[in-house]
Amino acid sequence: MDAGPQQHQAMDVDAADAQALAKQLRALDAKELLAVALDALKRDAAPLAAALAARESKRPKKRRRKAQKPMDLTKYEARDVALWIAYDGGAYRGFAAQEKAEVDVDTVERQLFQALEKTCLVSGRDACAYSRCGRTDKGVSAAGQVVGLRLRSVARRGTAFEPATHPGDALANTERRDAETNEIIPNTQKRELDYVGMLNRVLPDDVRALAWAPVAEGFSARFSCASRTYRYWLARENAHGRPRDVEAMRRAASKFVGDHDFRNFCKMDARPRRLDPLQTPSPRLGRVETQVVHVSNFRREIYAARVEAAGPGLLRFEVHGQAFLWHMVRCLVAIIELVGDGLEAPDVVDALLDVARSPRRPQYALADEAPLVLHDCAFDTVRPAPTPEALLQLHEHLTRERHTARVALARTENLLEKLDGFSVRTAGAEVPWAQARPPLLAAADERARAAHRPLLAREGGKTYEEKVAAARENPTKRSKFEACASKRSENRGGFHAEKRRCG
After folding, report:
1. Residue 484 confidence (pLDDT)
2. CB within 8 Å of 96: residues ≥ 6 apart
3. Residue 347 a catalytic site member
4. Active-site residue (options: 80, 137, 194, 341)
């Protein structure tokens, strides 16, 4: 139905007004236009504010979350466990915490305790009977580090608490009968907490819990450890492309086996201090387990040492022994590399092990820390007992990590291929880099061999006795040295007896 004449006339008037208003607005400059807009907003501010208030009142109010109360761990039972962990040490300043450092230092142990406290498994380091199997240096990784500690259990205080023999078992896995009626009491207790899964959900990706096992009260991860195994990966060729003498490396490695004085294969420190000041006092000894002045016994027994193939372009040095000195494995590898490169004979190991012949450690560089891994810590009576769920999660995580590593290797290989596409000028001629590279590497290798100075001809550092004498003569350290020496003398008998008993 068509609109009437009056409606058409009204529409024409509105259009005319709009055109006139637009013409007026175009005639205004920016300041005048802004003033007009503000005046219009002031006239309409009241209705606009009322509309906004009405809309805001209809929105649901956000509920404030109540602050969670900290978990009271005293309400729960606690159990002693051995925990196996693995980590990539590239991003950390070693394994052991350095709480007295002048700057904030990130270590694997620090990350571990942050995860333990976040999951409410411990209330603090001092209250969990903590012990560690070994210390690893900055950049060193581990595939089987072991720590001992007391963790919160699923069982509450006052309930029947029968620790399971396996992580997957229930806490009370045996029948219990009433003393008066001889009726069977049903087992209503839950499975033990999933320590591995709980920790891996909050730990960083480069630190992983592997497994746990129940242990007896007073368990020491350090002194109960029967042996430790380290692995170190080496290239089959040196940096100049020269193949290494694998047979000579194997002969040199075999000479490490046995009970020897390894003072020429470690970092010797005679300063008066505790080696492990953060260690929890031993419940068995009633004092700090590592209350010593310094390492004075450099004899260690090596059970096995071998060099074997480990895939394309790689060799693996594996050493198995009861205990190791500071930087000992990296020193062993440094000598093996010199032997493999033809710079030293395998007999140099015999000379360095003979401290009467070589009382001063020759100056040589340590092997790089990145390829070193604490592979295993073995115990006579304690074995890791992972659950299938834990192994599945770890397998998925490690599969992703392996893919990332393979992609990084592929990028490196791609860059090496890119270099072969360049051309360089040598001897006045331009040749492809792939052709120029072999003679240039051979020349660099010959220069390095000519510059090498035999180890036995190098100037050695201070002997152990000289370092001790220097520490005693230092007036700032004399009182500390005497105090530590007295304490060590008091604890020597019981301390070392307990150490021998635990293996």
Report:
1. 53
2. 107, 109, 132, 135, 276, 278
3. no
4. 137
